[in-house]
């Protein structure tokens, strides 16, 4: 009898222990799954004004598997691919993306509301911002506009004279390498430029960059960033701060400014970046290293396509003794602006093998086309040429711009007929085909 009682007690203890362990196991799985649910996010810039494919997580930090379902797959499919934009007229379009998280036998769901960006207005023209490569040297490093209906034939506005004096917007009295970006708000424009006046100060030093903002491309507010004065510990010996550019980063809903820095005691040419404040008057924080090309690089321009950021720049190749023997336009790619950037050492332009100098790479998409234009400044020959691509990897043979000005390192954006005509009313030089085009 005593032995029987002991057997029953042991059996009950084993059952209790097994049940307790099972309960603890289920509880542990639920805790882990809840942690993965809490950590699951879609960056705010993607949810508010979607223009890109969604970066959807498919594996949680605790090992959960995550599948997604779209409430309207005609706009965004279950893999997060954006298939079309919302109509320009009418109500806003929202899509619900629901995540199903599974770990073991446990399942949880989490939903996100995604606002689809409206279609862009019909772009009918192109605006080229540049500084001039000919004429009186004291007037060359000033901001100018060129305009085109087809991205091949270009006409200078304002008789190829500056549209704003560099003395009014820069610390040095000169600007180079202007980069113009249309913001997420269709009527916001951001312009950055190298704060440098080589005619007066030479090439040994420039302090920083110029930051500008406009709502009409005519009237501009400006600010100056002196990298050495603003960040003396990080940049105590700045030699060059070259070719700044701006790009919107949807992962943080901010505008990133990036540029090449060279220090006086270091020959490296590295890209640094910082997020602009909301007013686009300064940086939120100290610039940090963004991309370090193997042999150094300048004149970067980034564009997003099909889930990948393409970073075009002037790169070079050096021998085992560190002597450069080739240079031209190269690219690196990354899935996010934070990198890591994968450097491709292939030259994209048609002139690297011919040892003909090119720099100032710029990339833009053609209106009503799937093609992109990679343009570059052939500064020794006073030529500007371009090569077309549909995938940003393979580029067609070069073509030349036809123009009545000699641009140096600039950028191109797409504009509407209304915007072109507004510029034409302010400054002479608008082509007839744009002057008469319906707005």
Automatic annotation (TrEMBL):
CDD domains xref list: GH43_Bt3655-like (cd08983)
Keywords, in A-Z order: Hydrolase
InterPro entries cross-referenced by the UniProt entry: aBig_2, GH43_arabinanases, Glyco_hydro_beta-prop_sf
UniProt keyword Hydrolase, yes or no: yes
SUPFAM superfamilies with a match to the protein in the record: Arabinanase/levansucrase/invertase
Residue ranges of every copy of the Atrophied bacterial Ig domain listed in the record: 46-118
Domain of life the protein comes from: Bacteria
Keyword Hydrolase: yes
GO molecular-function terms, A-Z: hydrolase activity
PANTHER family for this protein: ARABINAN ENDO-1,5-ALPHA-L-ARABINOSIDASE (PTHR43301), ARABINAN ENDO-1,5-ALPHA-L-ARABINOSIDASE A-RELATED (PTHR43301:SF3)
Identification of the protein by name: Glycoside hydrolase family 43 protein
Species name: Pedobacter riviphilus
């Amino acid at each position: 009898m005593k032995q029987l009682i002991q057997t029953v007690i042991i059996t009950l203890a084993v059952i209790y222990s097994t049940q307790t362990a099972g309960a603890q196991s289920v509880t542990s799985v639920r805790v882990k799954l809840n942690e993965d649910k809490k950590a699951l996010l879609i960056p705010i810039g993607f949810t508010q004004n979607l223009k890109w494919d969604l970066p959807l997580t498919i594996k949680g930090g605790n090992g959960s598997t995550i599948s997604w379902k779209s409430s309207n797959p005609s706009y965004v499919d279950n893999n997060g691919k954006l298939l079309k934009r919302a109509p320009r007229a009418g109500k806003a379009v929202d899509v619900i993306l629901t995540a199903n998280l599974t770990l073991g036998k446990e399942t949880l769901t989490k939903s996100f509301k995604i606002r689809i960006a409206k279609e862009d207005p019909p772009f009918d023209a192109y605006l080229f911002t540049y500084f001039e490569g000919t004429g009186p040297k004291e007037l060359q490093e000033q901001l100018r506009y060129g305009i085109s209906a087809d991205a091949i034939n270009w006409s200078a506005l304002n008789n190829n004279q500056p549209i704003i004096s560099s003395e009014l917007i820069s610390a040095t009295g000169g600007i180079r390498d202007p980069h113009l970006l249309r913001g997420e708000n269709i009527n916001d424009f951001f312009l950055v430029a190298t704060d440098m006046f080589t005619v007066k100060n030479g090439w040994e030093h420039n302090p920083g960059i110029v930051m500008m903002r406009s709502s009409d491309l005519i009237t501009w507010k400006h600010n100056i960033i002196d990298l050495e004065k603003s960040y003396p510990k990080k940049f105590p010996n700045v030699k060059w701060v070259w070719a700044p550019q701006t790009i919107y980063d949807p992962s943080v809903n901010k505008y990133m400014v990036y540029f090449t820095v060279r220090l006086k005691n270091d020959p490296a040419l590295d890209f640094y970046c910082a997020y602009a404040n909301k007013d686009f008057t300064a940086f939120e924080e100290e610039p940090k290293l963004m991309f370090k090309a193997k042999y150094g690089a300048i004149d970067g321009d980034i564009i997003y396509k099909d889930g990948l950021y393409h970073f075009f720049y002037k790169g070079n190749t050096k021998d085992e003794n560190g002597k450069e023997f080739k240079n031209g336009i190269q690219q690196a790619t990354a899935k996010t602006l934070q990198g890591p950037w994968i450097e491709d050492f292939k030259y994209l332009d048609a002139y690297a093998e011919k040892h003909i100098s090119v720099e100032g790479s710029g990339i833009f998409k053609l209106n009503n086309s799937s093609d992109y234009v990679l343009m570059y400044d052939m500064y020794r020959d006073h030529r500007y040429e371009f090569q077309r691509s549909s995938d940003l990897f393979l580029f067609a043979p070069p073509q030349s711009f036809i123009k009545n000005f000699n641009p140096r390192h600039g950028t191109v954006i797409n504009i509407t007929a209304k915007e072109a005509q507004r510029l034409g009313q302010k400054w002479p030089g608008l082509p007839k085909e744009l002057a008469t085009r319906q707005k």
